[in-house]
Amino acid sequence: MAAKETPAIEVRKLTKAFGHTAALRGVDLSVGEGEFLTLFGPNGAGKTTLIRVVASLTRPTAGTVHVQGEDLGKAATALRRHLGLISHNPLLYGDLTPDENLRFFAKMYDLPDAARRIDTVLDQVGLVARRRDPVRTFSRGMVQRLAIARAILHDPAIMLLDEPYTGLDLQAADMLRAVLQDLAASNRTVILTTHNLEQGLEMCDRAAILNRGKVVWEGSRTGLSLAGMREIYRDVTRTK
Fold it and tell me: Smallest Cα–Cα separation from 50: which of 229, 225, 211?
């Protein structure tokens, strides 16, 4: 899918250091409006750090992030309304029910007709029957389902998914795949990080590989086989 003139996300010379350790080392990355990008990389490559920076959960040490043409560093609060995040941290309150959690986030986003939207997303993730049970009683897979409902509640234009299949049972993984298919078909911009090549290639328009804090390869999904991706991945992530 061709990128429009103003990318949905544009990262330039992005660096993030934790003490003397550099998690990101001059990352340049552009994602077009409506594009689905999968970002591959081994553990420790910097994938989670990059997602957290783009989601405005952590500040970069240097470099810039622009979301829909605006500088994230100057307009983070306003731009968060356009972002949905699914990560290792579900960002949910364990003592609250799904209904209560989603009502809280609906109020944050000033959602009109919040009750109907909550009904819709709970049905989408298969949690209607558990909507009044405390989240602390849920399995890991159920918590992740509710995290997906939270992330899509405000119908964001951009979805950021950091290893979303981690910890999911088969039913929850199938549900997530259906949600991703809906996102891919709805012209939303999606960045998915994973180390699973097969899952990551399933729906993306373009793929990139992050290794040791740098983008070491990127290319179109068109004509790229799983075997070809495996060969590229082995080559660019090989220890020098």
Answer: 211
Which among 99, 230, 87, 89 is positioned nearest to 165, based on CA atoms?
87
Over residues 134-144, the mean pLDDT reads: 91
Token duo for residue 8: 């949905």
Q: Are 54 and 160 in contact (CB under 8 A)?
A: yes
Indicate the angle between helix axes 170-185 and 140-152, nearest 10 degrees: 10
User: What are the strands of the beta sheet with 9-18, ordered from one edge?
Assistant: 21-31, 9-18, 62-67, 70-71
User: How many residues are recorded in the chain?
Assistant: 240
- Report d(CA 189, CA 77) in Å as an integer: 19
Which residue has 């809906």 as its token pair? 182
Tokens (6 digits) for 237: 């992530």
The residue among 75, 41, 69 whose CA lies nearest residue 56 is 75
Instruction: Specify the 3-state DSSP secondary structure of 87.
Output: coil
Whole-angstrom Cα distance, residue 14 to residue 207?
19
Strand 83-86 versus strand 158-162 pairing type: parallel
pLDDT in tens, 81-116: 999 999 888 899 999 999 999 999 999 999 999 999
pLDDT at 89: 85
Q: How far apart are CA 30 and CA 20, in angstroms?
A: 27
Half-sphere exposure for 77 (CA within 13 Å, toward CB) = 1
